[in-house]
Structure formats: structure tokens, C-alpha cells
Design goal:
It comes from Mycetocola reblochoni REB411. The chain contains no helices and 18 strands. By secondary structure, it is mainly β.
Length: about 190
């Protein structure tokens, strides 16, 4: 399966951003202040206000998103969102936390978990996040665009799930975050983990 560009207008927003403007092939997404996706764990609250632009995500495929990780405020974030339902989803990408960009994933099945690794060298750079769906798993990879993506996480995922996936943006702590989304593609799922 060759890589196919997914047009921005073929997706549906889970929650509309403040604005989304196409410019020279990129989609400039302005997040609403307080937008986020999280369920209960540790913090005790549920946030269900992310800006995720989703299209069907069948088994045997992968979704790739490229964006500029130019973040400056706590929890500014963007990446790939995979949704089965309001209580079962994954977000993977770059999040600004504790003063630095962090590569991470939140896997939610009733309650959220969170894994992070610092990537300070990605600040202001163009990043690629890829999620493959194959059999009973999602495989998350990420890296600088044009480079070799690294394995981030392997997540159990039921073969029967009807899922949608695509780019997402959140700004939990502020107004005015604009994230340039540069590419949204579908391709074959990764053949192997290593």
C-alpha cells in the first residue's frame, strides 16, 4: 500500500478548534484555551475537549502526522489521536511539560495513563508521529520529519474495534496556541516491531 495524503477536509473534528486555516498545504490550527483529553487518573477530572481531526482507521493501516513542535506553555501538545469512544482512545505526540518538549503517549481505557521522555532537541522542529494498527496492537513511532522514527509504545487494541484516527492539538493552560499541521497520510501498517 503506497502512502496516501489525506485531505484536511476529509476528516471530522471531535471538537472544533478556535480556527483551522489551510495555507500552502498546511493546516494552521488554533486551539481553544483549556482544550485537552484526559480521564480521571491522578488528577480526578475528565477533559474531553481535544481538537482531533479524524477519519476511519482500518486494521492493516498506519496514520502519519507531521507538525511543527513550537511549544512554550505547560501542556501545549499535538500529534496523532486514535478514538474508539469517549472512554477508549490514544493520543501520541509531543507535549510541553516541565519546561521542555516531551515525547509521550496517553492510553485511555476508562482511565488514562501517561508515558513521557524528554526530547529538548525537537523544540521548534518538524516532527512525524506514526501509529500503525495491525492485529491486536497499535504501534506508536515518532521522530524528526525526514529521519528514522523511534519506537515509543506498543498498545493492546482489539481487532474488532471500529476506530478513527488523525492529527490532534490541545492547549490545556492557555489561549493562542497555533500549531501548523504539515501532513496527514495513510499507509500500510508497519510489518515488524524491530
Amino acid at each position: 500500500m503506497a502512502s496516501t495524503t489525506i485531505p484536511w477536509n476529509s476528516g471530522s473534528w471531535t471538537h472544533a478548534p478556535a480556527s483551522a486555516v489551510e495555507r500552502e498545504g498546511s493546516l494552521l490550527v488554533t486551539a481553544v484555551a483549556g482544550s485537552d483529553a484526559w480521564r480521571t487518573t491522578s488528577y480526578g477530572f475528565v477533559n474531553d475537549s481535544e481538537h482531533a481531526l479524524l477519519a476511519p482507521f482500518p486494521d492493516g493501516t498506519a496514520v502519519e502526522v507531521e507538525f511543527s513542535a513550537d511549544f512554550a506553555e505547560q501542556f501545549d501538545q499535538a500529534g496523532v489521536f486514535v478514538r474508539v469512544s469517549a472512554t477508549h482512545w490514544l493520543k501520541a505526540g509531543v507535549e510541553f511539560s516541565d519546561g521542555a518538549p516531551q515525547l509521550g503517549a496517553v492510553v485511555t481505557d476508562g482511565m488514562s495513563d501517561w508515558s513521557l521522555a524528554p526530547v529538548p532537541e525537537w523544540a521548534g522542529r518538524r516532527v512525524l508521529v506514526r501509529v500503525s494498527r495491525s492485529g491486536n496492537a497499535l504501534t506508536v513511532r515518532a521522530g524528526l520529519a525526514g529521519g528514522q522514527p523511534r519506537l515509543v509504545r506498543v498498545v493492546p487494541f482489539d481487532v474488532g474495534h471500529r476506530a478513527a484516527a488523525g492529527p490532534y492539538v490541545c492547549a490545556p493552560t492557555r489561549a493562542g496556541l497555533v500549531v501548523p499541521l504539515h501532513a496527514w497520510r495513510s499507509t500500510a501498517a508497519d510489518e515488524t516491531l524491530h
